[in-house]
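Hi there,

I know you've been waiting on this one. I reran it after we fixed the sequence typo, so this is the corrected version. Both the input and the resulting structure follow.
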Amino acid sequence: MTRFLGPLVAVLLVIAAAWFAALNGDQRVTLSLGFVTLYRMPVTLVAFLGLFVGMVTMWVAGIYTDLKVRSILRDRLAEETSAEQARIDRLQRDLFRGDPEEDADS
């Protein structure tokens, strides 16, 4: 049941976006960006561009955090691997003390 939840939500979002665009297709707004003012912009274009710019902004903001977490995990894995190798080497050194033929002769 849960594997159908993600695609179902995506389909519902697409339907909601198409419904919004159909109902507001003829609506126009004035958009002031601070350095330029755009007149008679379709409200659907403004809404979808706002959504797109927000997603890109969150992606760019998340890159730094993602790289930082990956670096921490990579360092932790390297420390655990070296500690594990040291423990394995220390325990296995006694298993291979000398030449097996010398032990058989004595």
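Quick highlight: Strands lie at 28-32, 37-42.

Best,
R. S.
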